[in-house]
Amino acid sequence: MSDLRDPAPYDALLLLSFGGPEGPDDVVPFLENVTRGRGIPTERLKEVGQHYFLFGGVSPINDQNRELLDALRKDFAGHGLDLPVYWGNRNWAPYLTDALREITLAGHRRVAVLATSAYASYSGCRQYRENLADSLAALEAEGLTPPEVDKLRHYFNHPGFVRPMTDGVLAALADLPEEVRAGAHLAFTTHSIPNASADTSGPVEEHGDGGAYVRQHLDVARLIADAVREETGTGHPWQLVYQSRSGAPHIPWLEPDICDHLEDLHGAGVPAVVMVPIGFVSDHMEVLYDLDTEATAKAAELGLPVRRSATVGADPRFAAAVRDLLLERAATERGIDAERCALGALGASHDLCPVGCCPARAPRPAAAGADSPWA
Q1: Are 165 and 64 members of one domain?
Q2: Average model confidence (pLDDT) for the chain?
Q3: Can you give the three-state secondary structure of 55-95, one letter per residue?
Q4: 362 lies in a domain?
Q5: CA dihedral of 58, 59, 61, 64, whole degrees rounded to 10
Q6: Are residues 34 and 124 in the same domain?
C-alpha cells in the first residue's frame, strides 16, 4: 500500500494556470500577452478590458490560485506527502518560465503539472503544452537543463471535481423561491470555442461533431443532473450551453449562447434557471462577468429567476483529487497498476496526449505528449 502513496519519480508539482491582471495598469499588457501575434490594436484591447475595469482591473483568478495552492499544500502535508508545489501562469506573473527556472535551480528533475483546465481542446490542453515547450526551450537557451514535465490527465469526471459541483447545484436550487424550484431548468455552461477546434479536440479517433470537448461536457452534465435527481427526487431538464465567445463573427463557434438560451427558456414559460459553470475550475472573470453580470442582467430584464452554482475552486475534495491524480500517475510511471477514479461513461482519460490530439492550425512544439521533443 505504501507504494501507492509514493510520489516518485516526481519531486515537485506545478500548478499551471492562465493568469490575470491584478490592477488597472496590468489590464492592457495582460491582454497583449493573451493576444500576442494576432495584431489587435491597443484601442481594441482597451475596449475588451472594460470587463476587467468594472472590477478595478483585477481578475479573481490569481487569488483563487493562491487559495488552491494553500489547499494543495495542506492536503499534501496532511497525508504525509512531502512534495513542493509551485505555481506558474501562461499570461501573467508569476510566469511559467520563471516558475520552471525556480524549479530547475532548486534541483528538481521530474515535475507533474496540473493545468487549471479540465477538458480536452486546443486552448484547454495543447496550448498549455505548447507554453510548457516554449518555457523549456527558453531555459535551455539560458544554459540550464530543465526538468522533465508530465501533464496530469484530464479530471472532468473525477469524483473530486464532479461532487463539489453537484453540491453547488443543490445549494443554488435551494436558494430559488420555493414556488419555482421544482420547475427550474439547469443550464450547464462552458467556454465557447470554434466548431473546428471542438471537432478536432481529443485523440484522432474522437474527432468529429464536437469531438471530445463536447462529449466530455455532456457526460459531466448528465452525471450532475442525475445526482441532483437522486438527491432531490426531482428531475430538472438541462442543456449544455456556451459563453464568452471572442472570435470573428463569420467563424462558427459552439452555440447556443447562455443569454440566448435564457431568452428561449423564458419564452417557453420556464419558471427559473440554475446556471452551472461546469467548464470552469474557479470563479474567474469569465464567470464573474459573463454569468454573474451579463447573463444575470439578461435574466433580470426577462423577469426570470436565476441562480449561479459554485465552481470547484479550492474545495478540499478537489485538492484530494489532485493528490489522487498525482499518485496514480506516479504509480503508473513506476510500472504499478493504480485505481483511476472516473465517473460516467467515458472512463479515465489518457496520461500522454497522442499524436494528433487537439491540433493547432499552425503546428508548434508541445511538451508532455507523445509528440514532445522532450519525450
Answers
A1: no
A2: 95
A3: CCCECCHHHHHHHHHHHHHHHHHHCCCCCCEEEEECCCCCE
A4: no
A5: 40
A6: yes
Total Cβ atoms within 10 A of residue 304: 18
Query: Would you say residue 41 has pLDDT above 90?
Result: no
Q: All 3 cell numbers of residue 49?
A: 478590458
- Please answer whether residues 185 and 234 qualify as being in contact, where contact means their C-beta atoms are separated by less than 8 angstroms: no
Q: pTM of the prediction?
A: 0.96
Whether the Cβ atoms of residue 307 and residue 341 lie closer than 8 Å to each other: no
Q: Is 14 helix (H, G, I), strand (E, B) or coil?
A: strand
Q: Are 166 and 224 in contact (CB under 8 A)?
A: yes
Q: What is the DSSP string of 168-203?
A: HHHHHHHHS-HHHHTT-EEEEEEE--BHHHHHT-SS
Mean pLDDT for 248-259 is 94
CATH code for the domain of 209: 3.40.50.1400
d(CA 332, CA 338): 7
Q: 225 and 300: one domain?
A: yes
In this structure, is the dihedral angle defined by the CA atoms of residues 85, 78, 161 and 330, taken in order, positive or negative?
positive
In a shared domain, residues 8 and 133: yes
Nearest to 220 by CA among 109, 365, 346, 93: 346
